Amino acid sequence: INKDIPGPAGYYYKGLWSSLSGSTVKQFNSASAISQCLKDKVVHMYGDSTVRQWIEFLSSKLSGNFPERNGHIFNLIVNHTFFLLFTELHYVANELDGVTGGKTTVVVIGVWAHFTTFPIKYYIRRIMSIRKAVVQLLARAPDTRVIIRTANLKQSPTPYSILFSDWPSLQRDKILRTMFQGMNVYFVDAWEMTVAHYLKHDIHPPRPIIKNMIDVVLSYICPSK
């Protein structure tokens, strides 16, 4: 759960991510394992293209195809046992107000990449509105599982580009963590998971890192008993 760790959030061993936050990261290597975890669940994913990577990964693992797209909304239904919904470029707070919530509901939020080139005050306002909506969601449905994706390192186009460097991303990452501090939410520490990996930094992390991120997400949804 949301904890301030005075050091690394985890480490890789033989390509697999292990968390130092006290939670066990399980491996979901097959479509059947993923489907079993998501059975009877409704998963709402909100955010930018770094979150879209997750639903595209899940779709390719579960059906071998990319999800059906309707504008900036993706819908993926597998075997009619669970629903994966992804919404991009909508106001996340407004979308959350329409989520009933409950123990079968999972909400995934990842908002940062589109805000790195704008004044930071706009990001603060956006995250404040999302935080308020999450507080209201957890108040009406405390069993809802809320998962926050942090920012990650990216490859700068030039060695002297401050605007597109990791510095603006780091600022927004710290704001995101601070805003949700003390709340009953779960973090996928994308920053640590990219800085600790040997592959090149990219705003859209390569598939081996995405696979580990998905394992963290599914471990939050289906923790070890």
Automatic annotation (TrEMBL):
This is NXPE C-terminal domain-containing protein. Residues 17-64, 83-222 form the NXPE C-terminal domain. Pfam families: NXPE4_C. Coiled coil: none annotated. InterPro entries: NXPE4_C. The lineage of its organism: Eukaryota, Metazoa, Chordata, Craniata, Vertebrata. It comes from Salarias fasciatus (Jewelled blenny).
